[in-house]
Specification:
Layout: H1 6-15, E1 21-25, H2 28-40, E2 44-48, E3 53-57, H3 63-75, E4 85-91, H4 92-107, H5 127-142, E5 146-149, E6 164-167, H6 174-177, E7 184-190, H7 193-201, E8 205-206, E9 208-212, H8 216-223, E10 230-233, E11 248-249, E12 252-253, H9 258-263
Helix pairs in contact: 1-2, 3-4
Length: 274
């Protein structure tokens, strides 16, 4: 099917009387198109779209563990995951240590053929995605971000981008504002818990969030000030069939998985017997 036909075919499928409801996991653009078509047909939708998940490290966190989990969360599937952590908001007292160790760990990641069992980072979905990630990185560096490691496409064949960590990122930069769907991590400093929560919540997305601290109550206090469909404390955001999964804001609406996911596509019927 030609790309130009996608919108027409999608609308036709949704309008078909055999279709009662629609669920989509995809981009914001796809979500808007599907929601518009479903709205015209008066059919319910569940949308699981993009994300710019914050990974908040408070000063009492286990920095070594946070770094290990940060690498795992950000670079899963080459960074091409809606629920991957993308913005690393770190308390000032541990920011230097976290950034250095994070950069060192990312620099050691093996990029290459996904069929090779030694490979840790595979290719991006296509050359257009490489160019988009490059533009986001270049724009952010031009605005003052510092490259800790990586920062450019990988030379040679294939759609590869070097695993990248950017430090000194601020809210006006592209890697803070937009979803970086690739192997790029943005590190942002926070003066205290209040600023960490504010920076984490300063996004149009709202899929997941994680907070790292030795004090669970403190972590929850910060996490409760972040708008997101999921909050993980001292753990990497993940989907689990036992738990509802979905987002808020530009990350979509409705829930997948668990009983809540099943109920999204059921009708509540009232029966009254007089």
């Amino acid at each position: 099917m030609d790309e130009a036909e996608v919108a027409t075919v999608t609308a036709g499928l949704i309008d078909n009387p055999a279709i009662a409801a629609v669920t989509l996991t995809g981009s914001e653009r796809a979500g808007m198109a599907v929601a518009a078509a479903a709205g015209t047909a008066l059919k319910k939708t569940v949308l699981e779209l993009g994300g710019s998940d914050p990974f908040v490290v408070l000063e009492d966190a286990d920095v070594d563990l946070a770094v290990e989990m940060a690498v795992r969360s950000r670079f899963l599937n080459g960074g091409q995951s809606c629920l991957a952590a993308k913005r690393f908001i770190v308390a000032e007292p541990v920011a230097d240590a976290f950034t250095q160790r994070f950069g060192d760990a990312v620099a050691e990641l093996r990029t290459g053929d996904p069929a090779d069992p030694r490979t840790q980072i595979g290719p991006l979905a296509g050359r257009d995605q490489v160019e988009r990630i490059k533009q986001l990185v270049d724009d952010s560096v031009a605005a003052g971000a510092r490259v800790v490691t990586g920062g450019a496409p990988l030379a040679g064949p294939g759609s590869f981008f070097t695993p990248t960590v950017l430090a000194d990122v601020t809210p006006e930069m592209a890697v803070f504002r937009e979803e970086t769907f690739g192997p790029v991590a943005a590190v942002i400093r926070a003066a205290d818990d209040e600023e960490a929560a504010r920076l984490a919540d300063d996004t149009a997305f709202g899929l997941g969030a994680s907070v790292w601290s030795a004090d669970i109550d403190r972590a929850l206090a910060v996490g409760h000030r972040i708008t997101s469909g999921a909050l993980f404390v001292n753990a990497v955001v993940a989907s689990d069939p036992r738990l509802p999964f979905g987002g808020t804001g530009r990350s979509g609406y409705g829930r997948e998985l668990s009983q809540e996911g099943i109920r999204e596509f059921t009708n509540v019927r009232t029966t009254w017997i007089g």
